[in-house]
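Let's practice the habit of predicting before peeking. Look at the sequence and jot down your guess about where helices and strands might fall. Then scroll down.
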Amino acid sequence: SSLPPLAASQRKRALNMEALVGPRLLHAGGEVATSSLPSGGVVALYFSAHWCGPCQQYTPELAKVYKAAKARGKALEIIFVSSDRDEASFGHYFATMPWHALPFNDRLRKEVLSTTFQVRGIPSLVLLSDTGRIIEANARAKAMLPSFLSTLPRAADLMDYGPVPTEPVTVVVRHRGQEYEIECEPEEGWEQLQMQIMSLTEVPEEQQRLFGLGVPRGPLDDRVPLPKALARGLHAQRGSGLRLADVPESARAASSAFSGD
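Done guessing? Here is the structure:
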């Protein structure tokens, strides 16, 4: 069966990334289309080589960061750009990595990438948007910071959940074991929703931490437009209702400065 055509925005993103790294990447023992990289996330180009001592030390640490990002649902992809001297060394080294790689035989593209991003030495890490815009040209140290993961977008916030609601949505809020229903106007945004929550729970807006709406872990991100967050919640709940705080007791306890949930 044929695959549906890419949406215009996705096609443009795919073409931009393909212009940088080519149409195919290596991953998990095979080849994948560059267009299969998730949209909206951060793409890191990792310039490294098996013969490089500092790279041998850095790669396992970067792998820990990558795995932690995936475990937290963060939208991060890494592409290994090899400076190895032969394909056997490349293959041995890449086998230790959990991410993608530029095909070793595409030496010209490797040189172009090194020149484009002014790579002077390895290991080097360049952070890009999924359209190829530079986020951080020298992210080697930044990626090791405890705060790095918090700067990455969450994959659940980037997915397409279909049409956003335009009519009022009934949102169920749970606080201290009590449930409240709020008629949420999507276009009025997070601030209005938080004011409604405060009027019912007496938890000030600046102390509210909201959970749920289809996000499996971690608090909601108010940088995501509320209509899209509601669409995600409706998708997760199959249209049966929404819960901002229907999460385990341990997580609810962190939803405000007050004790309890």
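How did you do? DSSP finds eight helices and ten strands in the chain.
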